[in-house]
Amino acid sequence: MAVEASAAGPRSGAGWRFPDLTPWLLVLPLLVSLGLVSVYPILNGIWLSLTNTSLVTQEDAFIGLANYKTLLGDDAFWNAWRHTVEFTVVSTLLETVLGLGMALLLYEHFSGRSLVRAAMLVPWAMPTVVTSKMFGWLFDGQHGMINYLLKSLGLIEGNINWYGSVEHALQTIIIADVWKTTPFMALLLLAGLQTVPRSLTEAATMDGASPWRVFWYVRLPLLFPTLLIAGMFRALDAFRIFDLVYVLTGGGPADSTETLSTLSYKVLFSTLQFGYGSALSTAMFITETIIALGFGVFIVAQLRRQS
Question: Between residues 299 and 179, which one has the greater pLDDT?
């Protein structure tokens, strides 16, 4: 009994020892760096959105939610928000479907598969500015290759002003983004396919299941969490689209390709309205948070269903 008491003694009372802070000290530089480059800019942006800070009028006063009230009645904001959502939904769906097809193809064994896998990443590795300029030349309304090919095939009679017309500008940007980012989705989904046990697909094939049934009833259910995670990453990235739009159209023509990122940039750095521009950025951040939470609910539900 005495031995047991002495053994239990250090755990309570005078035997309590101060916890070892070495692990926290080791990660402290990382936490400080993240706070400086991530947390502080977010908090500072939210604070600026509650002020009327402007380098033009030299005002800098706290005005509460006045910027957000103005935002709700701003047609330019809703126009950019609608274009951003449309771009995000369409591009994410197309890139997920096409990326899944590419992943299924690259999963199979064939001669030169490694070379094809490496070549697949070239569009994704190209800088977005280069992609924008390349598609600017391809879709040029007067001398572009796309118009030439379509006229040669008899699909159109005259040139189409792709990124210079209200009807086709956003579609052209979506096409350029799909070409560039689909390999990224294919890479993520290919990694997910490789986690599906081959024994399951082989057993289904031996039972007489067709390739379509093997995919629909075996591969796809197991791949669905990966699809959701890849879709979330792509949707959050697409919602921040800036460089492709800025270089290719600048938000025009007639604001038909204006997105929240380009609008925030113009308000912040062209009109120098830091308060209202920060409110635009905060609204964008809130929308992305809602998107992430929505995907998160579905991802957790799928993981629980499979566990």
Answer: 179
Rounded CA-CA distance 245/247 in Å is 6
Q: Are 93 and 265 in contact (CB under 8 A)?
A: no
Report the SS3 class of residue 51. Answer: strand
CB 238 within 8 A of CB 177: yes
Residues paired with residue 51 on neighbouring β-strands, in sequence order: 62
**Is pLDDT of 11 > 80?**
no
Burial class of residue 197 (count of CB atoms within 10 Å of its CB; 0-12, 13-18, 19+) = exposed
pLDDT, tens digit (0-9, with 9 covering 90-100), for 92-126: 999 999 999 999 888 888 888 888 888 888 888 88
| 254 token code pair | 């007639």
As a whole number of angstroms, the distance between CA 286 and CA 265 comes to 17
**Beta carbons of 166 and 254 less than 8 angstroms apart:** yes
Neighbours of 188 (CB within 10 A): 20
The DSSP output letter for 162 is: T
Length of the chain: 307
Considering only CA atoms, which of 118, 98, 131 is closest in space to residue 231?
A: 98
For residue 173, CA distances in Å to 9, 176, 228, 270 come to 70, 5, 24, 23
The pair of structure tokens assigned to 232 is 């979330």
Tell me the per-residue pLDDT of 16-58, one tens digit each, with 9 for 90 and over.
Answer: 666 777 888 888 888 888 888 888 888 888 999 999 988 888 8
User: In sequence order, which ranges of 153-214 are alpha helices (DSSP H)?
Assistant: 169-193, 198-206, 211-214
Pick from 160, 177, 13, 203: which is nearest to 99 by CA? 177
Model confidence band, residue 258 (pLDDT cutoffs 50, 70, 90): very high
Give pLDDT, residue 140: 87
